[in-house]
Amino acid sequence: MRKNVLKFLVIGAAALASIASAAPGWFIQTDVNQDFRYRLQEDTQDIYKVADDSMKTAHRYRERIRYRLGLTSKINEEFTAGARLATGALNNTKSVTQTLGDSGSTNPFGNQGINLDQAYLSYAPKWVPEVTGKFKAIIGKFDLKEGIYTTTTVAWDSNISLEGKNLNYNYKNLGVEGLDLFANVGSYVLNHVNGISAYSSGTGLGVNANLEVQQLGLKWKILRDYSLETAYTQYAVPFYDNTVISYFGDKAANQIAAKIGANLSVPYFEKVALLYDDFTNPNDNKDNKAKAYGLEFGTAKVAKLGDYSLRYLNRRLEKNLGWDFTDDAHSTKNTEGEQITLVLGLVENVSFTVDYYKFKGIDDTDRDGNDLSDSAKAILNSSSTRFEINVKF
């Protein structure tokens, strides 16, 4: 019996080796990444009761899951293709989380949705001499960090997948050892307009609303253990049509992001960083910013029991911001507050996270200068507490 088992194992191993040797190179160089998250979430919001002129705090409790399956294939030395499936609703670009029981009381235990979250092709030419720097072009639907460098989520929710194209440039050791220059030039489709249909109906030629992005940044590693990262970004929608999109007209919004970090030889305090992020919408002269600043520290990485990361952010979204891609947990304008995030390592590839947000209103008037009603002022006061188990496999 044992000889037969060994025989079958040898045959099976030989067959797998034969298949592997015959498979194309891109198949061998395909990486599969999956992650799962389970979240318990409590949200609170102040509600003004007109009937008895009282203020109450309403609570909402949810159990939520997130699953993502990603594939990345190195086609050859220059081309890479990737795709990712994820849970979440089609009409919410800033969340890939699915609420349990969200299928409704008439359809308990209903199937949850899964969507195409990313699909892209990137090209990094090898024929360009290294002395001139490195270029990388990417097209399709891809991760935010492929096209825009940020330090917080005050302007961009990290779940957003950009749609369009981006050209990235990197130049290392810009006259000083460890000083690197990077740049991004991207064009992202915000809204598709059928120009043929618009012209036929007499409503105009019709053009797509695209977000044009130009970014220039530096990353400086100082004396091995210290670092500075910063980037200046401009955003514009050239073919502006306020019936399609209404962010900041024909003007360019701008963002400044910065991070100062240090690696320390102190147990359980191995890294520390200061964070800063400032986004300005030029369409208004005041109350037109999204701001965040804070501190993060912890172990070098969160990989096992005893590892941790702690982040504190002070966040502010002013009432005339006119920008819709901010963190899903902090998207209400005219609010300010704080976020505290603690990540604890449990075992390899498994971590536990506590994420807490608390916000209050900034101004008692609306964008037009009119006084807010008691109800409108009340809903600016909110909080969210999230307990999460995260698994990567």
UniProtKB/TrEMBL annotation:
InterPro entries: Porin_5. It holds the Pfam family Porin_5. It comes from the Bacteria. Residues 1-22 form the signal peptide. Keywords: Signal. This is Uncharacterized protein.
